[in-house]
């Protein structure tokens, strides 16, 4: 067992874990943050995407020891039912949420993109979400939602 320290959704966390645990399992099992989904467990589907030190990562592929000292943001820390984050609002507005399983990972990948590129092109959006699989929407509504969120964040209002 090791103790790691990191900033999770803006709050300091100290947690005792097995050095071989993956970040996803600690987030869901130990810390009970179930918004981050466990999909393939192989880094191929993107359902477990979180933002680590400003970059979108597949938390199922990150040994938790690598999170020591890091800043981790998850969907659980993004908005709340009474005050949705602009990306959450945009996904609803664009109809980009169907079964919802991929949505947390898509939103976190989109947030990492918008944090770096506030007005991304379609190609930049497609590249940012390329590792996130959606079997319901066909991606068109997801891309539209990210553009809506970009406009909302830039003070241009939603569509």
In words, what does this structure look like?
- The structure is a single chain.
- The chain is an alpha+beta fold and 159 residues long.
- It folds into two domains: 2-77, Beta-grasp domain (Ubiquitin-like (UB roll)); 86-153, Orthogonal Bundle (DNA polymerase, domain 1), CATH 1.10.150.
- It has five helices and five strands, in the order ββαβββαααα.
- The protein has helices spanning 23-30, 86-93, 103-116, 122-128, 140-153, and strands at 2-8, 11-17, 49-52, 55-58, 71-73.
- The chain has a five-stranded mixed sheet, with helices on both faces.
- α2 packs across α5.
- The longest helix is centred in the C-terminal third of the chain and has 14 residues, at 103-116.
- The protein starts with a strand and ends in a 6-residue tail after the last helix.
- The mean pLDDT is 93.
Q: What is the spatial order of strands in the main beta sheet?
A: 2-1-5-3-4
Biggest β-sheet strands, sense, barrel: 5 strands, mixed
- Low confidence ranges: none
Annotation, overall tally of beta strands: 5
Helix-strand sequence: EEHEEEHHHH
Secondary structure: helix percent: 25-40%
Radius of gyration: 15 Å
General shape: globular
């Amino acid at each position: 067992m090791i103790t790691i320290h990191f900033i999770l959704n803006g709050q300091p966390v100290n947690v005792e874990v097995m050095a071989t645990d993956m970040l996803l399992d600690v987030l869901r099992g130990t810390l009970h943050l179930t918004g981050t989904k466990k999909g393939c467990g192989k880094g191929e589907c993107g359902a477990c995407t979180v933002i680590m030190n400003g970059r979108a990562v597949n938390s199922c592929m990150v040994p938790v020891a690598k999170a020591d000292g890091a800043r981790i943001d998850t969907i659980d820390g993004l908005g709340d039912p009474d005050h949705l984050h602009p990306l959450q609002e945009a996904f609803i507005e664009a109809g980009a949420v169907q079964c919802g399983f991929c949505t947390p990972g898509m939103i976190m990948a989109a947030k990492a993109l918008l944090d770096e590129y506030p007005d991304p092109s379609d190609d930049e959006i497609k590249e940012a979400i390329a590792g996130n699989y959606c079997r319901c929407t066909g991606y068109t509504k997801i891309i539209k939602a990210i553009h809506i969120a970009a406009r909302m964040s830039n003070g241009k209002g939603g569509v």
